C-alpha cells in the first residue's frame, strides 16, 4: 500500500490592512498564518473590534496613504491581505519583492468594483450578491480571481442585509481562497477578470440626492432602497426644507392616486403619524422614515 506523504505548510506571515473584520477572523483562527502587522482604518469595524479586544494594531486615515506605502515596502511579511483598504496599493513594486497580494471584495467581480460598491446592488438593479478574493493588481479590483461565490438577491433583503450577507460571504470566499493557495503551494494563477462584463460603482452625494419634482417613482424608490441605512440615507429639499430619507414605498391605492392627481410634484400631500405622502412626476410615494435637517 502506497504511503501518502502530507507536506507540512510553513507558517506565512501576514500584513493585514483594511476596515472590515471578514479576513481578520479567518486568519486569527488559522494556524497556518501569523498576523504580523495590522493596519486598521480609524473608527472602522476592524479598528473598533481590535480596540475592544485590546489587540495591538496601527490606525490610519486616507491622508496617511504615503506613510502606509512606505511601511508596506519596509517591513517583513509573506502575504498582504487587504479587506476594505480605501486606496490603491502598489502592486507592481510589492510583487517584485516576492509578496503574495490578496484583496477580498464584497461583490461578485467584475461587477461593482470600487471602494463603496454595495449601494450599487439596488442602484444598478442587480439580481445577485457575491464576494471575491483576488490578486491585487495596479487596477481597481481587477486582478485574477482566486475564488468567488454569489447568491440570488431575494425580495426580503434590504440594504442592511445586503451589507451583512456580503461581509459574511467575504469570510467564506477568503477561507476557500486560502485553501486553494495552500493546495497549490501558493503558486496559483487564478482566473482572469473581464472588466468589460462588469461595472464600477462608488457612493456619491449626487447618487444619494432625490429630486421629487422631476424624478419618477421608480427612480426615487431605487435610490431610497440603495441607501436606507442609518449612516447614509437620501437627500432631498422638500418645500424649502432639507430632508434625509431612509425608507419609503410606492402608493398603489386608486383612491389616493385619484384624489391627489392634479397636485404638483414635490408637494407634501398628507402627513400622518411618522409618515407623509409626497407627489412625484408619475405618482405618489409614502415616506416612512426620515429626518429634517436644521
TrEMBL record:
GO terms for cellular component: cytosol. It comes from the Bacteria. One of its GO terms (molecular function) is methionyl-tRNA formyltransferase activity. Residues 62-162 form the Formyl transferase N-terminal domain. Residues 208-293 form the Formyl transferase C-terminal domain. InterPro entries: Formyl_trans_C, Formyl_transf_N, Formyl_transf_N_sf. This is Formyl transferase N-terminal domain-containing protein.
